[in-house]
Amino acid sequence: MRAVSPCFWRRVRSAIWTIESYGLVLLTVMSFFPRLFHFEEYLFFTLFVIALGAAWREGRTMWVRTPLDLPLLLFVGWVLLTIPFATDPAYSFAEWRKVVTQVLVFYWALLIFRVHSDEATTRRILAAVVIGTALLCGYALIEFLGNGGTWQDRSIRAGAPSSDYNWLSTYVVIVIPFLVAVAAVSKAFWQRLFSICIAGLALVAEAVSYTRAGWVGIVAQGFSFGLLTASRKLIMWILVACLMGGIGLIALNRTGYQRETTSTDNLEYRLVLWERGIQEIASHPIVGLGYGNDTFFKLFGGHPKTGQPAGLHNVFLMVAMGSGVPAVAFLLWTLIAAVRIILSEKRKLSDPIASAVMVATAIMIIGFVVRNLFDSMFAGSIAFLFWILVANGLALRASFGPVQPGRKQDS
User: Fold this and answer.
1) What would the pLDDT profile of 269-284 be if each residue is shown by its tens digit?
2) Cα 122 to Cα 142: distance, rounded to the nearest angstrom
């Protein structure tokens, strides 16, 4: 039998990694639609197994080392360690497997970015973010208007497809820094204009989602960027905008509009939940009561005051109550380290695209953390999108271009 030529295998490997790259772009777009999450999972595992086989065939290391390895793996390992102590071990183990999948998405995306270490891959991901945002927010606004939503109150709120306003507001917090980055670095006028328009569309969608925690996340991003660039003028404008927005909402409330938006009931309900959560953390500080957002409901049956089904509405309290203080410490270590490393590496960059994307990634993480102080949104397709964008930020180099043969790969 005639042996297969090395040239043939090179073409096959090149085709595989090209498919993997476009698969990553497709996953990014699909992440904007929670209804497609199961298909997204199937696609990911298919691509992951193919990438694993291709990497083994090439003698390539599947695991791309990053400074996040230690805290991230400690977090995953500690949650697993606490599962036998959970009130419902089967449920907590199922939730832990979801976390493992998210971590695999992160390392798989890092591998793709390492193989395709060029500007084209990053541009495709940014394009996927812009397209996904346009589709998501366009759908949300059309549905909002079709359902009779108005500016007068939030009895009807814009939401993500097959999901709700919390998901929509979280998506907007994630994408806003990248939309601004695309508008800043695009060379063509139409690209800048399109990105600005989509950013405006996203902000309108955020407004009619009537989700105050989303706006808090965006304001935190603005302050973070102002501090990062030492722009006192930007910080001042943000303060003025917040002040004017607050005055405007109070004025609307006095005239009979947006009374539910200005109500403090939701904050008071959350404070009751957080107080109960902190009490349980103090009682079980090491291994917690069981990882997962539904653990609180399984234990207490609902909100202590309203009786309605409720989680803790804070991802960090949820992790601490579920798997103990060490788990939340490892999670915060991971997120803080990601921001610190990305910003420190950004200072070494000369390429404007790489620099802008790394700043956007760091600002995104900060806004995402603040958003999750009021809800538990670190799950599902949102988590997939988050880890893909973090992987992109960590994988960027000082200059784009293919890795030369024999040159050590950066991570």
Assistant:
1) 888 889 999 999 999 9
2) 30
